[in-house]
Amino acid sequence: MKVLVDSVDNEGLEAFIGKPICIFCMSYIYAGILVGVKASCVKLSEAVIVYETGPFNESGWKDAQALPGDCHYIQTSSIESFGGVK
Question: pTM for the full model?
Answer without folding.
Answer: 0.87
